[in-house]
UniProtKB/TrEMBL annotation:
The keyword Transmembrane applies. InterPro entries: MFS (IPR011701), MFS_dom (IPR020846), MFS_Efflux_Transporters (IPR050189), MFS_trans_sf (IPR036259). Residues 395-415 are annotated as: Disordered. It is a multi-pass membrane protein. This is MFS transporter. The chain crosses the membrane at residues 42-63, 70-96, 102-121, 128-150, 156-178, 199-224, 236-254, 266-283, 289-309, 330-352, 358-377. It is found in: Cell membrane. It comes from Streptomyces vulcanius. Residues 395-405 have a biased composition (Low complexity).
């Protein structure tokens, strides 16, 4: 794999760390600013909304900039946002810093996916995308726990300063390792927008929302579920999240490897298995060992869908994939928000802390149905294309004769 993928992975590591580390530092931030925990939670909500809005906005604004330069500008924005959070004199300023940092998130992964795919041979594109996303998954295993530990002992401002420094390292790596990759000639914003007229692109994004939503329906409420139902101590939740992160790393790498060989079958297996495991989590949540194994499996199966879904969007968007790729990153965050809301609804309705698992299973099953529909549509389109391209007339060297038996329709080679 090219070293440029390492630079992209470092940037992804920093972005993944800043996105999730705030969840472990909310009490410290709330205490310093004198706000309630729910108010401090706006730092999470604001970031998610910034990703949703920033993915298409920043991609459109950078439509005339080379992809390498755009990645560098996005990392600069990320560094500025985290530095602003680190030195924020008031809660409102920190919220602004979080939003500024989040604006880089979707576009970085969207453009980065296109760059990663272009760095390798066609049969290794999904693997290259998964290598970049490895930075995001490793962030959940290493960056978030360490960032939380640093914030609790040295102060949360130090955590955000360190994350900003990671952004500088990522920026330097992109500047030095990623080759210049100008945008394809003739591709303008209208070409990028035209990708959204493709039903297959929209289906892939819907699969992203539902499939990834299935994961976070359960994981969003992992703390109350594992403490109140499974019987884990509060301090064990961090290690359960590390297990989830390890599953993410493994699933992401496996998904990238096998998506290059058989993309749609990989989606069938991962989404189908994810739906089953989430449904079983309503039972395994009552046993500590089984619950821990299930959490790791959810991380693995959920992130096994990421490289194939991202590659599916790139493939279907054809020659103008950048905006579609970035918007698909926003779709992951939309899935997070949707599933967290639905999971909260079933808990509030009195169905218990394991009820979000049923919501997640239903969402993953719906994503599987869409994958099957997408494949069926593609097969029908392929048959129509083949039927419409049959050549009539006399047989010539290397041409195909219309009509007759299958053997008669085989190409005839003159010696």
């Amino acid at each position: 794999m090219p070293l440029a993928l390492l630079a992209l992975a470092i940037g992804a590591f920093g972005i993944g760390t800043t996105e999730f580390v705030i969840m472990g530092l909310l009490p410290e931030v709330a205490g310093d600013f004198g706000v309630s925990i729910p108010t401090a939670g706006l730092l999470v909500t604001g970031y998610a909304l910034g990703v949703l809005l920033g993915a298409p906005l920043m991609t459109v604004l950078g439509a005339k900039v080379s992809r390498k330069r755009m990645l560098m500008l996005l990392m600069c924005l990320f560094v500025v946002g985290n530095l602003l959070s680190a030195v924020a004199p008031a809660f409102a300023v920190m919220l602004i810093g979080r939003v500024v940092a989040s604006l880089a998130h979707g576009a970085f992964f969207g453009i980065g996916s296109v760059v990663a795919a272009d760095l390798v041979a066609p049969d290794r594109k999904a693997g290259a995308i998964s290598m970049m996303f490895t930075g995001l998954t490793v962030a959940n295993v290493v960056g978030v726990p360490l960032g939380t530990l640093v914030g609790q002992h040295l102060g949360w401002r130090v955590t955000f300063a360190v994350v900003a420094a990671l952004g500088v390292v990522g920026l330097a790596g992109i500047a030095g390792l990623v080759p210049e990759m100008p945008r394809p000639e003739g591709v303008h914003l209208r070409h990028e927008l035209a990708a959204f007229k493709n039903a297959q692109v929209l289906l892939a994004m819907a699969m992203t929302v539902l499939g990834f939503g299935g994961v976070f329906a359960a994981i969003t409420y992992i703390a109350p579920m594992t403490t109140h139902v499974t019987g884990f101590a509060d301090g064990s939740v961090t290690w359960l999240l590390v297990l989830f992160g390890l599953g993410m790393v493994g699933g992401n790498l496996v998904g990238g490897r096998y998506a290059d060989r058989a993309l749609m079958p990989m989606l069938y297996v991962s989404l189908g298995a994810l739906a089953v495991v989430l449904a079983l989590f309503t039972l395994t949540a009552h046993n500590k060992v089984l619950a821990a194994l299930t959490i790791a499996l959810i991380g693995a199966l959920g992130f096994a869908t990421v490289p194939p879904l991202q590659k599916r969007v790139l493939d279907q968007a054809h020659d103008a994939p950048t905006l579609a790729s970035a918007v698909n990153i926003g779709a992951f965050n939309l899935g997070n928000a949707l599933s967290a809301w639905l999971g909260g609804l079933v808990i509030a309705a009195g169905f218990g802390y394991t009820a979000p698992n049923w919501v997640g299973a239903a969402l993953a099953a719906a994503a599987l149905v869409l994958a099957l529909v997408s494949a069926a549509m593609e097969r029908r389109a392929g048959v129509a294309t083949v039927s419409g391209s049959t050549v009539t007339g006399s047989t010539v060297t290397g041409s195909t004769v219309a009509g007759g038996t299958p053997a008669e329709r085989m190409p005839v080679v003159r010696h």
